[in-house]
Amino acid sequence: MAQLFDQTADTYLRLALLAVLLFLIGLATVMSTYGEPRYITAVGWAPDQPVPFSHAHHVDGLGIDCRYCHSTVARSSSAGFPATHTCMSCHSQVWTQADALEPVRQSYERGEPLRWRRVYDLPEFVFFKHNVHVSAGVGCETCHGRVDQMPLTRQATSLQMEWCLECHRQPEKFIRPRDEVYTMGWQPPKDREKMGRRLVEEYGIDTEILTNCSICHH
């Protein structure tokens, strides 16, 4: 029987397999260096909501403070969702017949809360407290991005452990004065880290324990 492949075919096959292996190693290296793809981290994801609420309109356009709707953010682990009567305090007077607000009117009339979908949803084994971070001078936009520029609320950060640890390892690079926590587009001073180190001491932040596993995983 005639030989189907010449003697160089085996060499070419080995080189092709080596090239595939090197490509896969390179791809894994790039992914580990530059982070997980967005379809895994959900960065940029904006879930459908019962009402197309625009932070850009309410925060930037109308100047409504974060705490008006997220009233428990400074005193509870949860920032809280606004009760329907909070929405109706304005919308009983303006946009009273808007089709987009029909779910709000029905919620108010029936006494049933709106079923908002979470944009940020941590795993059950991670414990996060909004009030602790607010007290430590962590700005809303540090985790949630520029919500004042979001027509629809989307996930701005990955919430991966390494992302959290970046701040926990060096909080002086991220924290701000408490009276600027809710400020969107806050501009830090040129000596940010100097200010940060002062605030770390002023707020009593114990940097020795911030990277301890028990801080987030009880």
From TrEMBL:
<keyword id="KW-1133">Transmembrane helix</keyword>
<feature type="domain" description="Cytochrome c7-like">
    <location>
        <begin position="127"/>
        <end position="218"/>
    </location>
</feature>
<keyword id="KW-0812">Transmembrane</keyword>
<feature type="transmembrane region" description="Helical">
    <location>
        <begin position="12"/>
        <end position="31"/>
    </location>
</feature>
<dbReference type="Pfam" id="PF14522">
    <property type="entry name" value="Cytochrome_C7"/>
</dbReference>
<protein>
    <submittedName>
        <fullName>Cytochrome c3 family protein</fullName>
    </submittedName>
</protein>
<keyword id="KW-0472">Membrane</keyword>
<dbReference type="InterPro" id="IPR029467">
    <property type="entry name" value="Cyt_c7-like"/>
</dbReference>
<dbReference type="InterPro" id="IPR036280">
    <property type="entry name" value="Multihaem_cyt_sf"/>
</dbReference>
